[in-house]
Design brief:
heterodimer; A: 339 residues; alpha+beta; four-stranded mixed beta sheet; three-stranded antiparallel beta sheet; B: 329 residues; alpha/beta; Rossmann fold; Helicase, Ruva Protein, domain 3
């Protein structure tokens, strides 16, 4: 009887250790599920964040109970082995347990001996042995779980956006498009970065279409008439083609260009839709000053060029805020068209 | 069934045996303890040591302490099996008829000292096999039972190997313990010289009879062994085999042949005696660990790698014990 009582003291201590282990691992499972639920909740239904705490409580209770019963509940032999190990009992207690039904004299002596040794030791001296890995994992999972649980709470309070919204924003920000510029017809040159990678919604840097001698810039294939283009709020990959038209004068027309009398806003005539005086193929525009590339002026040399150049330089001087790149672009343009 | 009287008697007799042996044998505590444990457990003992360290004296003293008929056989290359077991000789009876009469050899004693056993030929060595295991001697087709208790205490010299015949595994396996008798320490040496200056006579008295020794064996046999300890002892035996399921990494690396099941039997029998001598009523892991060396060292056959690395059997046993203790933790 006394032996049984002695053993009972140690049993409850070792059982408590098993229970503690089961609860710790139960917490790891519970907090892991809570972590998953909190993430999903933040994504799709932040207002249901409280359900995570219910999951945490239920999962912890269920898994701790199962773990204790299946894995951590110590048998009498386990407890006996533990006592032997902890107090260097030289296998007295395990022998006593395994021969508990043996009533021989030698076993009675053995039990007396084991009891005597047991009495000398206190159950409280059995230290709880819990693996460092379990403690570390439990701490990390608890910290992560509580941190992530705060997300749907904050989203419900409109402090932070909902998870899906954040993901969409991130996706948007992380999208890049390629915008390139090429010449589809005629002879000329494109100045600027001709192939650009641009983040979604952002603008490209400027590209200028400069025609060669005897050619004029007509329009970009998407209808833009300005030879200098900047594509704003890019939403996809794109290639923009510049179209140049030859300026050879029809027979019988004066060499000097005449002043434009057309409406400047009139869209350019499509290639091939000439008035019949051209030389066929791409078709020819009527030689009008408004088709020229710089501010409606018509020539690249002589007085007109000088005036235009001078005017551009004055404009640059009068606008100190313009960027160096823009200034270089304007100067480069004049250098390119200079005869 | 064992009684309180028997247990008390066991303790008393053990004390007396040790006290009497100490009167003639100075120091060598481990050797004396190992020898007495093996004798109580009923095993044969192989004592290995250089000449002059007291092997023969110890055996003679034990013969006197246990008050048992003692015979000594000096093994030499020309020793024949019949010189050990005895033989039939032709004698005339009262009527003048010739008949065979069996003349028992020195093996017919309770304690047989086989001195320098490795000097005899394998044929003569093998004459001891049956006696050591079955405690019977068969001559000319007639088996004769040896009187109990029966022990063979053999000695061998580890250094003078010229003209010797190393004991085969089968013979080795029949020794419960192989005990290494080391040189005495300085203080022991002084005691030995002081003692022998006074008298060379052996003064140990009888401490127990053969029948009492058998009773002690029966008492020790009653000591319970927990399943865990039994399993541990068998795992240890099995771990010495390089190809067993419990094979240790050390055995895989250094051992060619592991210990036989007799090693397991010897471990448990001896551990029971050891526990009772220590005043404990159950066998502990530490008993097994302590006995692992004398029980296993002569049963492990080392491979070439162990010999090349100069690793001894004792070192291998130590490594196996380390591995095993990690496994059971």
């Amino acid at each position: 009887m006394e032996v049984k009582h002695q053993f009972q003291r140690f049993r409850s201590r070792v059982q408590r250790e098993g229970l503690l282990k089961a609860i710790l691992i139960g917490f790891i499972i519970g907090f892991s599920l809570n972590l998953v639920f909190a993430t999903v909740s933040w994504m799709f239904f932040p207002s249901l964040f409280w359900l995570g705490f219910v999951i945490l409580a239920v999962a912890t209770a269920v898994s701790a109970t199962i773990l204790y019963l299946v894995k951590f509940k110590p048998s009498d032999d386990d407890i006996a082995r533990r006592i032997d190990r902890e107090f260097n009992m030289q296998e007295r207690v395990i022998t006593m347990r395994q021969f508990k039904d043996d009533q021989s004299y030698i076993m009675q002596k053995q039990r007396e001996d084991a009891e005597e040794q047991l009495e000398k030791n206190s159950a409280n001296k059995i230290k709880f042995v819990i693996g460092t890995a379990v403690i570390v994992v439990a701490s990390v999972v608890t910290f992560l779980s509580l941190s992530v649980t705060s997300l749907p709470v904050l989203a419900t309070l409109n402090v932070i956006p909902q998870g899906m919204q954040v993901i969409e924003d991130i996706e948007k920000e992380s999208k890049w498009f390629e915008v390139s510029y090429e010449i589809r017809a005629g002879e000329g040159e494109l100045l600027g970065e001709l192939t650009q990678r641009v983040r979604a919604g952002e603008s490209t840097s400027g590209v200028l279409a400069v025609p060669n001698v005897d050619w004029i810039f007509t329009y970009w294939e998407d209808g833009l008439k300005d030879p200098y283009r900047v594509d704003e709020s890019v939403k996809g990959n794109a290639t923009h083609y510049a179209i140049f038209t030859e300026t050879r004068l029809p027979d019988g027309l004066p060499d000097e260009p005449r002043e434009a009398d057309d409406d400047p806003d009139k869209p350019p005539t499509n290639p091939g839709e000439g008035d019949g005086n051209g030389s066929g193929g791409m078709g020819q525009y009527e030689y009008v000053a408004r088709n020229q590339v710089y501010d409606g002026e018509t020539d690249y040399s002589g007085k007109v060029y000088d005036m235009a150049y001078e005017e551009a330089m004055e404009w640059i001087a009068g606008n100190p805020d313009i960027s160096e790149a823009e200034r270089d672009l304007i100067i480069g343009y004049f250098k390119t068209i200079e005869k | 069934m064992i009684s309180e009287t028997q247990i008390k008697k066991f303790s008393k007799q053990c004390e007396d045996i040790f006290a009497q042996v100490e009167r003639d044998v100075v120091g060598q505590k481990d050797v004396v303890e190992g020898t007495i444990i093996a004798m109580i457990a009923g095993g044969n003992i192989l004592l290995e040591g250089v000449p002059g360290v007291g092997k023969t004296r110890l055996v003679r003293t034990l013969g006197r302490v246990f008050d048992l008929p003692f015979s000594r056989i000096q093994f030499t290359p020309d020793l024949m099996p019949a010189d050990v077991t005895g033989t039939n000789i032709i004698v005339k009876d009262d009527e003048g008829n010739s008949k065979f009469d069996f003349q028992p050899g020195p093996i017919f004693a309770n304690i047989v000292l086989a001195d320098e056993i490795n000097r005899a030929t394998p044929k003569t060595q093998s004459a001891l096999l049956e006696a050591m295991q079955e405690h019977t001697v068969t001559v000319m087709g007639v088996s004769r039972k040896l009187e109990e208790p029966f022990f063979v205490l053999a000695t061998q010299n580890p250094i003078e190997q010229d003209g010797t015949y190393p004991l085969p595994e089968a013979q080795m396996d029949r020794f419960m313990f192989k005990i290494i008798v080391k040189n005495p320490s300085l203080s022991e040496l002084m005691d030995i010289v002081n003692m022998t200056q006074k008298t060379m006579a052996e003064v140990a008295d009888k401490a127990c009879s053969g029948a009492e020794l058998l009773e002690m064996r029966q008492t020790a046999n009653q000591i319970p062994v927990a399943d865990d300890v039994m399993r541990y002892a068998m795992m240890l035996t099995s771990a010495t085999h390089p190809d067993s399921e419990c094979a240790s990494e050390t055995a895989k690396k250094y051992v060619r042949l592991g210990a036989s099941p007799r090693a397991g039997q010897a471990l448990i029998s001896a551990a029971k005696v050891m526990a009772l001598i220590k005043g404990r009523y159950n066998v502990a892991y530490e008993d097994i660990n302590e006995l692992a060396y004398p029980v296993l060292r002569h049963r492990i056959k080392l491979n070439f790698e162990a010999i090349a690395d100069r690793i001894s059997a004792d070192e291998i046993i130590g490594m196996i014990l380390d591995e095993l203790s990690k496994k059971i933790k």
